[in-house]
Amino acid sequence: MMTKNRPVFLDLTQLSFPIPAIMSVGHRASGILMVLAIPFLVYMLDLSLSGAEGFATAQSVFSGWFAKLLMFVLLWALLHHLLAGIRYLLIDFDIFVDKEMGTLSAKAVMVAAPILALFIEVLL
What we know:
This protein is an all-alpha fold. It has one domain: 3 helical TM bundles of succinate and fumarate reductases (Up-down Bundle), CATH 1.20.1300. Helix content is 77%, strand content 0%. The protein contains 4 helices and no strands. It has helices at 19-49, 52-62, 65-92, 99-123. Helix 1 packs antiparallel against helix 2 and helix 3 packs antiparallel against helix 4 (99-123). The radius of gyration is 20 Å and the shape is extended.
């Protein structure tokens, strides 16, 4: 009887993924994060539109450090998702398809999204 030489344990931390693959996972994660945030954001919008007391409550919720951090992460996710979506749209039109340009555009998305998020956060 022959034994099968299958790996028993695959350590994913030992694998090195290319930058476009990491950016692709980030694109999916940012989409999931934004979808999960919708109920909270809709509730806060409803609360803020319910009257003066509701607006004051919503304003106090968003004035805490944790809410500010959460909003920054959501802004980062939105910008990452937007820029990555534009990148994928360009790839669909056969722009940035070769390996070098694909890696460069993935790096550009991964750098531009947090910089734009910081820029917007400072302005607001």
